[in-house]
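User: Sequence in, structure out. Go.
Assistant: Echoing your sequence, followed by the structure tokens.
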Amino acid sequence: AEALARWPQARALLLGGAGLAGLAAPLAGRLPVPVLDNVELALQAALQAALQSAHMHKPGASDAPPAPPEAGPWCGLGPALAACLPAGGTGLAQPGASTPP
């Protein structure tokens, strides 16, 4: 509330982080601008994307099964970032490979 008073041009307050999840509704009536919960917004966006994807997919459109997820603790990293990690981002030690200090 104090930050909003110092920043009158603000049109909304975005609560960031899982620790603030669920606080938008209780704060909404106490502040002069809409209060947005980033966790709730992210979940709504993910659900909307999943529903849209389900509606766009046509059975039989792809004969190939989906690719299995990558194994390892760094699953899904891009090639450039994965190359900076031990074992090329797989998280698995490669025989004979030296690890940088």
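User: And one key feature?
Assistant: The chain has a mean pLDDT of 75.
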